UniProtKB/TrEMBL annotation:
Stretches of the chain forming a coiled coil according to its record: 428-455
Protein's name according to its UniProt entry: Ndc10 domain-containing protein
InterPro entries tied to this protein: DNA_brk_join_enz, HOT1, Ndc10_dom2_sf, NDC10_II, TF_GCR1-like
Boundaries of every Transcription activator GCR1-like domain copy: 493-561
Species of origin: Parasitella parasitica
A single BP term in Gene Ontology: positive regulation of ribosomal protein gene transcription by RNA polymerase II
Any Pfam family the entry gives: NDC10_II
Length: 564
């Protein structure tokens, strides 16, 4: 059913492509809308079909794959196979490469030796860190045949090391199977050689052969998975996420949706993801591999890939030679790294997988290898003890150093507190004096406000315009003798009308100031009762004027008429 859905989608795409020319925009939009509806309906029918045919919900889910422990078991089963050791080493290599590099199944089938080379991550830690790099120029996700790259370093677990698995597979081909060592003088000879060979070294392994090999290996290890050729891609991505790799690192590692920057400018070797996939911390400088502490002697190295020494003597390993290519020199550098890796990994693999047929080779029975194995095992045991002691010594040093830092911080805090107190004292005194001055100003303003409030008079008008009032006795300036005389001369008992009182209040009479001006300047304490009642008069005049909409003079006349 899934295949039918994919075929329908391809047919719909072909129909759209063939009828795209000469069609209007409206026709194209209608056609695409119809195709989209058909695709959605087909997807729903596929789900219903799968449910009715009892397809398990775990298929094609995150459960569909293998665990890291199951991968180790498959790797050991391949290594300990009682027959067909060459095919088993090939399947072991593809399993680990597909997992660590998150490769699709068809990628490893079509890779040539010219696409394989080695680099080195600098300053990764106390152990030198070579990198196996694979140039990917084919595959379903690389239809444009761009040059993409994937890499892997030596794994902390020797049975999961894809770099070492590559070395043992090439060792089997060039040492046990009798395959001729590549002649790098001739470009036509080195380019067609396949990494995963089929019937011969120039033909790819058949897809059915690879699927059958994966199926048998999974069945032997108890792995239940519907995915076979692409199992490593999904399981590798899940392991990377479980180990803490970010989505961006996983996308770069698996080459999912790479943009222009990554395709053109970046090497597409996500160092962080590569470290995490090999079970090392993601930070730089933490790469430490105990099995790589001892370097094999030169006499032992010469036994592995002797064709490399012949190429080196003839100058083929020199990239500046006119007969060489960059790919050829890169592959020779890879072989140089693999010589060391094979011997170092063989020490532990022989202990853990003693039944493997590969140990029958004379190299692993030689005195040189036995001596190297003893030195390596002793170095690894000593390194573990030394590492534990180093951790204890470092912890005590760190504890002591933290104590010193804490004491220094306490002393600095006290010194800062003393400096702050000393520098803040003058500021505090200045602030206190400023607050005292502000308090004095507030007291003075309060007194002035009270003096102003004491000048207000409350009064009321009763029967027939007769005024009754109560006046406060504020503290007022003492008038001069001349002003007192002027005030006395204005005391006239002949004011019988409101108009006379209003004129005396508002106008300057006989060269003397008005009562209003005198009251404003000296208050209402001095003067006759007429002057004391002037405030009531002006209040009544203003009230009448406001109520009846009159002017002040009309209001005065109204009061005179009312009084009469």
């Amino acid at each position: 059913m899934a295949c039918t859905q994919q075929k329908c989608r391809r047919n719909n795409q072909n129909v759209s492509d063939n009828h795209g020319e000469g069609s209007s925009t409206a026709d194209l939009d209608l056609r695409w809308k119809t195709i989209k509806q058909l695709d959605q309906r087909l997807e729903i029918e596929c789900r219903i079909y799968n449910a009715n045919n009892l397809e398990g919900p775990g298929e094609n889910s995150i459960q569909d794959g293998y665990t890291f422990e199951q991968m180790i078991l498959v790797s050991q089963n391949h290594l300990n196979a009682e027959k067909y050791i060459g095919s088993n080493l090939r399947d072991r290599m593809t399993l680990l490469l597909n997992h660590m590099m998150m490769l699709r199944g068809e990628v490893s089938r079509f890779i040539d030796l010219k696409h394989c080379f080695s680099l080195e991550f600098k300053d990764e830690g106390p152990t030198r860190c070579p990198v196996f790099v694979m140039m990917i120029v084919n595959g379903k996700t690389n239809q444009e045949h761009k040059k993409l790259y994937s890499g892997v370093i030596r794994h902390k677990e020797v049975n999961a090391c894809a770099f070492g698995a590559l070395g043992f597979y090439l060792f089997q081909r060039f040492h046990e199977d009798g395959e001729d060592f590549p002649r790098f003088e001739d470009k036509s000879d080195q380019f067609p050689i396949k990494l995963c060979k089929g019937q011969d070294h120039k033909s790819s392994i058949a897809p059915s052969t690879k699927i059958d090999a994966v199926h048998r290996a999974f069945k032997l290890a108890g792995v239940k998975s519907k995915k076979l050729t692409h199992a490593g891609r999904g399981s590798g991505a899940r392991d990377a996420e479980m180990a803490g790799a970010s989505v961006d690192h996983i996308k770069r590692m698996g080459r999912w949706s790479l943009d222009t920057v990554e395709n053109v400018y970046l090497p597409c070797l996500p160092c962080t993801a590569i470290r995490i996939m090999s079970e090392f911390p993601e930070q730089i400088g933490c790469y430490r591999l105990p099995r790589a502490l001892v370097t094999p002697p030169e006499s032992l190295l010469c036994m592995v890939f002797p064709g490399y020494d012949a190429c080196k003597e003839s100058g083929i390993s020199d990239v500046n030679s006119e007969h060489n290519t960059i790919c050829g020199v890169g592959f020779l550098r890879l072989l140089k790294e693999l010589r060391v890796i094979i011997l170092q990994d063989a020490v532990l693999l022989r202990q853990q997988n003693s039944k493997s047929l590969i140990w029958r080779n004379k190299i692993f029975k030689s005195q040189e290898f036995e001596a190297f194995a003893r030195d390596s095992l002793q170095a690894m045991a000593t390194a573990q003890v030394t590492a534990a002691l180093e951790i204890r010594r470092t912890m005590s040093f760190v504890e002591e150093r933290f104590g010193q830092i804490q004491n220094a911080l306490v002393a600095q805090a006290r010194q800062v507190e003393q400096l702050f107190t000393a520098s803040a004292a003058p500021a505090n005194n200045d602030l206190a004096s400023q607050l005292a001055a502000i308090n004095a100003n507030v007291t003075s303003l309060r007194s002035e406000i009270q003096a102003m409030n004491s000048r207000f008079t409350s009064a009321r008008v009763i029967d027939g315009g007769r005024v009754t009032f109560e006046q406060a006795q504020p503290s007022t300036p003492t008038p001069t003798a001349n002003e007192e005389a002027q005030s006395s001369s204005m005391k006239s008992p002949n004011h019988n009308s409101v108009q006379d009182l209003w004129d005396e209040w508002t106008k300057r009479m006989n060269g003397h100031p008005s009562i209003r001006n005198l009251n404003t300047k000296y208050g209402t304490k001095r003067g006759t009762k007429w002057r004391r009642g002037s405030k009531v008069l002006i209040t009544e005049v203003k009230r009448i004027a406001n109520e009846r909409g009159l002017g002040d003079d009309d209001a005065v006349q109204y009061l005179d008429q009312k009084k009469m």
